[in-house]
Specification:
CATH class of the largest domain: Alpha Beta
Shape: elongated
Radius of gyration: 26 Å
Structural class: alpha/beta
Number of domains: 2
Number of helices: 19
Strand order of the largest sheet: 2-3-1-4-5
Distance between the termini: 40 Å
Strand content: 5-15%
CATH topology of the largest domain: Rossmann fold
Length: 492
């Protein structure tokens, strides 16, 4: 990782700016910021502004100024100083994905994905390896956003210990004279230097050419606001002019033929199927309640060929789980709301709370299958998606979720027989579309995409379960068994 780290002790010191000079520069800057903001509308670029700094560095005052200088109707300000149960019961980055601005809008984050790592480091609740791992996840998160078109602007407001002390101890201009000291003033407890050293380390480890940090001297309010405004203006204009450092996507080797190794002759007779169905549905029912009591989430992904039997397999799963304990998410073409955000947003927002199951009938793998083959996604987009998917699933796993992914495989001949059956049976005709027939003509392209998907995303945290689907009875029991096994392994 290229590093352009600026040590705090090398920050340029300015003479205080007088009010008339500030107002003159602010008038011009305000017009420029407004023009940059209006130019965003209709573009593919959201703007994500991270404002960081020690308590008392003027972050809140700067947010007020930015909303004054720009059109506040196009700005979403997000604060993270209190954590809700809803946030704590999902993977850490969920709370931030919920608030990411759509394309053409600006999101200000006052408190961000940097806060938790810093506080844990300060309280010695995180070791070096974990801190480095957290920094890597942050770099990946920001890179995925930037690769998708986001303008990620990270500003650190730096103040001296004396200035911070004065800012935090001064009285608010109210009758009750309420002190402006935060609930957890870590820096006031003789920890200014320690806290600053941790932030230096964090900034250094998350400084990239693609998403750089900007260090702003916060001692003088006028300089601070002008400097921050200019940084935001320049970053937006650079991205609108297509000046961006995107992640280079490496080439991919020919994938191994995983599908060829699946024994499609596997089968179950009806009587045996009924016995197995009762057994494993009963077991899954019990495990779902144990998972609820232990606050363990299940995330199950169902993928497969058109006509492979995903729907009928899912019905056997949902038939075993209390409806209060799961949500079935059926994925189709993205809506306008989903199209306006980074690809993963639509999946992050569906995650259920700890102890509940989220079942995806099709999923984020559409990008590396349908969107790849049908050319709805550019080559660099679907190639980058493998890394995004692995990071997403790793985040789920590290939170404690049980991730199970099924690919239901059938032969081309079996698919044809099922398609014809659907056309002949009145109650099944709704299941067959012209698109299904078109997709069938591209079987070799889809086969290669599936094999590459398995090769690139079969991980220890989220392994693929390849299911022989020519016999529906066998496939359903195979899926129920795998879910039970995965839950039993995760539950105490």
């Amino acid at each position: 990782m290229d590093c352009y780290f600026l040590m705090f002790d090398t920050i340029e010191v300015h003479a205080p700016m007088n009010k008339s000079s500030f107002e003159k520069r602010a008038r011009a800057l305000r017009q420029q910021l407004l023009q940059s903001q209006f130019s965003l509308q209709g573009s593919r670029h959201p703007v994500i502004i991270v404002l960081a700094g020690l308590d008392g560095s003027g972050k809140g005052v700067l947010v007020h100024r930015l909303n004054e200088w720009m059109d506040p109707s196009g700005i979403d300000t997000n604060t993270y100083w209190e954590h809700s149960d809803e946030e704590e019961s999902r993977p850490y980055f969920w709370r931030y994905w919920q608030k990411l601005p759509p394309r053409g809008r600006i999101g200000i984050f006052l408190g961000s994905w940097y806060t938790q790592a810093t506080q844990k480091r300060l309280l010695s609740n995180i070791v070096d390896a974990e801190f480095e791992h957290t920094c890597r996840k942050i770099r990946n998160f920001e890179r995925h956003l930037s690769d998708d078109g986001a303008v990620v602007i990270k500003i650190w407001l730096h103040v001296s210990e004396a200035t911070q002390q004065r800012q935090l101890e001064e009285k608010a201009p109210r009758k009750q004279q309420i002190p402006r000291v935060t609930e957890h003033p870590y820096e006031l407890q003789g920890k200014y230097n320690q806290t600053l050293a941790i932030y230096e380390e964090l900034i250094e480890k998350t400084q990239t050419e693609q998403c750089p940090w900007h260090i702003v001297n916060g001692e003088d309010r006028y300089h601070r606001e002008i400097n921050a405004g200019e940084i935001i203006r320049d970053a937006i204009n650079s991205r609108l002019n297509n000046i961006a450092q995107l992640t280079q996507v490496p080439g991919l080797p020919e994938p191994h033929d995983f599908l060829a190794s699946i024994n499609l002759d596997e089968s179950l007779q009806k009587d045996e199927y009924k016995r197995e169905l009762r057994k494993y549905q009963s077991r899954l029912q019990d495990l779902a309640w144990i998972a609820y009591n232990q606050k363990k989430s299940l995330v199950a992904v169902f993928e497969g060929w058109d006509g492979a039997g995903k729907g009928s397999a899912i019905r056997r799963v949902t038939g075993a789980i209390d409806p209060r304990l799961y949500k079935l998410v059926q994925i189709a073409a993205p809506s306008d709301e989903e199209h306006a955000r980074q690809y993963s947003w639509r999946f992050w927002r569906q995650l259920q709370r700890d102890g509940r199951a989220t079942l995806f009938d099709r999923s984020w793998y559409g990008r590396v299958m349908v969107e790849r083959v049908e050319q709805f996604a550019k080559e660099e987009e679907w190639k980058r998606a493998y890394g995004e998917i692995n990071d997403f699933e790793q985040e789920l796993s590290e939170h404690g979720s049980v991730v199970v992914k099924f690919w239901i495989h059938i032969s081309k001949e079996e698919q044809l027989a099922r398609f014809k059956d659907r056309e002949e049976e009145a109650h099944k005709r709704h299941k067959i579309t012209d698109e299904d027939w078109r997709n069938r003509e591209k079987w070799p392209a889809y086969e290669k995409a599936v094999n590459q998907m398995i090769e690139q995303t079969d991980t220890e945290e989220a392994p693929w379960v390849l299911v022989a689907g020519n016999n529906k009875y066998y496939a359903r029991i195979r899926i129920l068994k795998a879910l039970c096994k995965s839950l039993e392994k995760a539950l105490s």
